[in-house]
Each structure stands twice: as C-alpha cells, then as structure tokens.
Specification:
single chain; 8 strands; about 5% helix; about 50% strand
Length: about 130
C-alpha cells in the first residue's frame, strides 16, 4: 500500500486549477465532514444519553500563496455568494473530494518577512462525493 504525499494533491474551483501548475500555488487544503445528532434519550437508558445521526454537512479550507494573476480570486468572482464546483485530490493514487460549495471567506495574510498568503473557506452545499 502506497503512502500518499501531499505534494501530489490538487485543487480546482469551477475548473480553474489552483495548484502550482495552475493560477495559484496551493500550500495545503483540508475538508471536514460533520453529522448532526438528535438526542433520543429516554427513561431506562441507565443514565446515558442516546443519539441518532441526522443531517450531514461539509466544510473546507484552501491555503495558497497569493499571486497577482490569481484570476477569479483577485476579481471577486468566487466571492459573490454563488456555489462553485470544488475538486480536491489527495495525491496521484488518492481520493477526490468533490461537490458544490460557497466561498464564505477570503483572507489575505501579509507579513514583512514572509510570502503573502491567501486562505479560502468553503461551506459545502449538498453532498460531498468521495471517489
């Protein structure tokens, strides 16, 4: 079994490649899937709460170096409240995490002794497909 290497990962938003070969230089990305729970505790559970799973949601973050040709990032196209198509891969033989998401925040970090970075926060709208 091969161990995946982060250097082989990719990020695309609405078909724009944000990895080193595309319009950006991605440092890292993450995705988190959550399931809401509904409490079903009743008498006779021995003092322990019980729960049932309910609705699922997902969020993600993409960290990248900011470039002056970041395209849609610079002109605000992805930050208009409309859903974008997201595809995150975790390596050449790894999984792809894909779906629609809304860019909920864009943060630019500028430091005297460092490169300018850009962070995108994503909130999924609908299913996150893992293939």
């Amino acid at each position: 079994m091969a161990i995946l290497k982060g250097k082989d990962g990719t990020v695309t938003l609405d078909g724009d490649d944000l990895t080193a070969t595309g319009t950006g230089v991605v440092q890292s990305w993450n995705v988190s899937i959550e399931t809401d729970t509904l409490e079903t505790t009743s008498m006779g559970t021995g003092g322990w709460k019980t729960f049932e799973g309910s609705l699922q949601s997902w969020t993600g973050t993409v960290e990248m170096y900011f470039r002056d040709d970041n395209g849609n990032l610079a002109d605000g196209t992805w930050f208009d409240g409309a859903a974008v198509v997201v595809a995150l891969t975790d390596g050449t033989s790894g999984n792809t995490y894909g779906g629609s998401a809304i860019v909920t925040s864009i943060a630019v970090d500028v430091s005297t002794a460092d490169l300018v970075t850009l962070s995108l926060d994503l909130t999924g709208t609908g299913e996150l497909a893992i293939s």
